[in-house]
Design goal:
Chain lengths: 111, 111
Amino acid sequence: MLVILFRSKLTASAAADGYPEMADEMEDLARQMPGFVDVKAYKADDGERLTVVWWQDEETLKGWREQVRHRLAQRLGREKWYEYYKLEVAQVVRQNAFERPATAAREPAGL
Amino acid sequence: MLVILFRSKLTASAAADGYPEMADEMEDLARQMPGFVDVKAYKADDGERLTVVWWQDEETLKGWREQVRHRLAQRLGREKWYEYYKLEVAQVVRQNAFERPATAAREPAGL
């Protein structure tokens, strides 16, 4: 599995200039693409946005990168929506997780 | 380069139970370790925290994973600070960036 880190800051005019609509459209579209696994959005204290996308493999990611509407969105992003972006593609080599066990119900006192 | 995604949610008591102090200590310590590249913290709308850490390679990351104070912090995290965590380690395969060019100063009218 691949994980894509897309960090960005928007221009002051992006919110009023079609960005939110295109971002929604791109998320809907990505979810329908072969190879899409998951997406989640985060924000740093300095206002930087981070979108993390998990994708099945390079072949299906290539399909998304070359999708026609997505290519238009990328072009418009550089033309007017992004102050900057930093993209990283990485291959997941291992995962690990922890979940706190539910607290066991105690027996009522006296029983 | 490796990128580590550490997603977590804290327990209700973590903030008053030593977590912030240990988190600060761990960040200071990580920055001094061989192989440390960068770290940045993010948060999702649902409250999930994401710490992204960039590390030079597997060998130096192993050094950090086995660092004595860090091992204690990991143990305390599972004992009392984390409701859950999800850790992913990934190998960066490519990077790409865009920065909006500074707007060129216009010549004053009439010159």
